[in-house]
Specification:
The protein is built from 19 helices and 12 strands. By secondary structure, it is of the alpha/beta class.
Length: 370
């Protein structure tokens, strides 16, 4: 039955001024999406539909050949998932005003039920790039789907790192799934389709207009168990996503940054306002009630992140050392040591015993020795 009614859901998605809320209201009143589509003007007004969207609906259905429109979308290789179908994403169905229709390229799988949104600024720093890349790789190695928005900066880095680690990723767009924005992400979009899906509530052919992006952020958080904001200014799409996540009852993590860093002002404020500071990637597994640390530690053992990290782990295995002592012992600059230790701390490889004094965490260190 759901397959037969797709064309009516498709029709409603073409009507200007009728979004998820009004479509769902029509469905509740008429009890059937087909009856809602075919209702008279008087019936639509009795159902509570305002004058302007009522007139838009009548005009659209007069001009639209639903069967031809459905065939055109399907021939373009675009899947349609409607709110009344069993394969509609379960977590997304529980948010306020879930999209009544989703257009996808690629495939949604049962594995995507465990998912984390990784979002952040388009103008990220090297620190943000490193955290986003390593976080996405960590999630992928733990079979957690990464959700983001295919935007420049943190989003694209998260998608790429997930794919490089052999994981699945979902990209939620603020335009039709047949349009790639930004255009330089065409190859990335193809890779996402191969190992995940492009997703949009917007009709194919919808351009990437600015007003489309804030609503799409509720889908990014709605598909995810929790949201991680890596870097963000005080007013940004990533902050909007975090606000949606909190409103949906989902946990929000934020990566802390320097007091002086413009790109960390948004994340630091999120932490001040109640978001969890992400200090260890394993905290995400705890929040998801997953226990895959041994799997991650094995991956870290056989694939060291870099030579500096390995040197520091070896040096810090017996007793805590101050960064000045580490620099004197290794000849590595304090800046490089400090940056590496921050990442090692986030990943749970070292801990800070005193100000700028670190020691390797025994269990991880022993596995490196094995």
């Amino acid at each position: 039955m759901a397959e037969e009614t797709k064309k009516y859901w498709l029709g409603f998605s073409k009507v200007p001024g009728i979004g998820a809320a009004r479509t769902n209201r029509m469905l509740q009143y008429f009890g059937d999406i087909g009856k809602a589509w075919q209702a008279s003007e008087q019936q639509l007004r009795e159902a509570g539909l305002e004058k302007k969207p009522t007139q838009a609906l009548i005009k659209t259905r007069r001009l639209l050949d639903l069967d031809a429109e459905l065939e055109k979308v399907q021939q373009a290789g675009i899947n349609i998932i409607t709110a009344d179908e069993a394969d509609y994403p379960r977590k997304l169905s529980r948010i306020a005003y879930p999209p009544s229709i989703l257009f996808t390229k690629g495939n949604l799988e049962e594995a995507d039920q465990t998912a984390v949104a990784v979002v952040g600024t388009r103008k990220c720093t090297s620190y943000g790039k490193q955290v986003a890349s390593e976080l996405a790789g960590f999630l992928a190695r733990n079979q957690i789907t990464v959700v983001s928005g295919l935007a420049r900066g943190i989003d694209a880095i998260a998608h790429r790192a997930t794919l490089e680690a052999g994981g699945r990723t979902l990209a939620v767009l603020g335009c039709g799934v047949d349009i790639v924005y930004p255009p330089e992400h065409r190859n990335l979009a193809k890779q996402v389709v191969a190992d995940g899906a492009l997703i949009s509530e917007y009709y194919p052919g919808t351009p990437p207009e600015g007003r489309n992006f804030p609503p799409r952020n509720r889908i990014i958080s709605g598909l995810s168990d929790l949201t991680v904001v890596v870097e963000a200014g005080e007013r940004s799409g990533a902050i909007i996503t975090a606000e949606f996540a909190a409103g949906q009852g989902r946990d929000v993590f934020a990566v802390p940054g320097s007091f002086y860093a413009i790109r960390s002002k948004g994340t630091n404020r999120l932490i001040r306002d109640g978001a969890f500071p992400l200090l260890d990637f394993n905290e995400i597994l705890d929040a998801l009630n997953l226990d895959r640390r041994d799997e991650y530690r094995y991956a870290r053992k056989v694939i060291p992140e870099n030579d500096i990290e390995l040197v520091l782990m070896t040096l810090l295995k017996n007793e805590p050392m101050h960064v000045d002592e580490i620099s004197a012992a290794t000849g590595i600059s304090i800046d490089k040591i400090s940056a590496t230790l921050i990442m090692m701390k986030i990943k749970g490889l070292v801990k800070e015993t005193n100000h700028l004094t670190y020691v390797a965490i025994g269990e991880i260190e022993q596995e490196y020795e094995a």
